[in-house]
Amino acid sequence: MTDTIASDAPGASPDETPTPILRARRLVKTFGRVVGLDGVSLELYPGEVLAVIGDNGAGKSTLIKCLTGAEIPDEGEIFLDGKPVDFKRPQDARAAGIETVYQNLAVSPALDVAANLFLGREKRKKGILGSVFRVVDQKGMREKARAELRELGITTLQDVTVPVENLSGGQRQAVAVARAAAFGSKVVVLDEPTAALGVRESNQVLELIKNLRDRGIPVILISHNMPHVFDVADRIHIQRLGKRAATITPESHSMTDAVAIMTGAARA
């Protein structure tokens, strides 16, 4: 199947060629005889939500893992802000400003909301208490956590001292996304953020994604939920059999069209 691009960057005029904030070019990844990625390219532009869809085994997870340092591609190039990057581990991607929220969330249930937001990046008190005795600045972290939640429009988490184990699934997802937004200065990657959530909580997460975009933070959204994808995505990258089958928009194609391309019943 040909690698078809149905649209340019959102908001770009015909005379402009905007620079993708994140770009993958001809990525190849194999696992023995199994081909995970077969020359896949992807472009994420500033201030957009790019959905990545595809059937099981299409290469979605492998693509995202290569972009975020969890896997190292066998061939191809990845660019961030137009500069080549070579991520060897997820910490490299995080250090470069790419934050990922995986399906399992990786939150610590026993810790409160603020502590989870700063997990692995705890703020220390100023002066000798922080530098020598490594005393954590709980007050500062809680103030920052409240500000971050408020800025993202998260109203369901009023108390940042509540242990995460006492929160609902949607609230836990909000904590994980808020953590990514707080530290993902360039890109936020969300892997099935509405999976296993009810309608009301799913809608809250979708609003959160829109808020991230409104703040200028580009988002890669991996999802099986077509209505959610068509609700928030500016463009949709479709994976099929380890290749990019097409990149479409909700304006240019319907959900039925997207599924047909994803399953091979139609071309873009």
Précis, in short:
By secondary structure, this protein is of the alpha/beta class.
- Helix content range: 25-40%
- Strands in their spatial order, largest beta sheet: 1-11-10-4-9-8-7
CATH class wording of the domain at 32-108 and 169-263: Alpha Beta
Going by CATH, the architecture of the domain at 32-108 and 169-263 would be: 3-Layer(aba) Sandwich
Shape: globular
Radius of gyration from the CA trace? 19 Å
Structure in words:
By secondary structure, the protein is an alpha/beta fold. The protein has a domain at about 30-110 and about 170-265: P-loop containing nucleotide triphosphate hydrolases (Rossmann fold), CATH 3.40.50. The chain contains 9 helices and 11 strands. The model has no long low-confidence stretch (mean pLDDT about 90).
List keywords for this structure.
32% helix, four-stranded antiparallel sheet, globular, Rossmann fold, 268 residues, alpha/beta, 11 strands, seven-stranded mixed sheet, 9 helices
Layout of helices and strands:
Layout: E1 4-5, E2 22-31, E3 34-44, E4 49-54, H1 60-67, E5 75-80, E6 83-85, H2 90-96, E7 98-101, H3 113-117, H4 128-131, H5 138-151, H6 169-183, E8 187-191, H7 199-214, E9 219-222, H8 226-232, E10 235-240, E11 243-248, H9 255-263
Parallel strand pairs: 1-11, 4-9, 4-10, 7-8, 8-9
Antiparallel strand pairs: 2-3, 2-5, 5-6, 10-11
Pfam family, one: ABC_tran
Keywords: ATP-binding, Nucleotide-binding
GO molecular function, one term: ATP binding
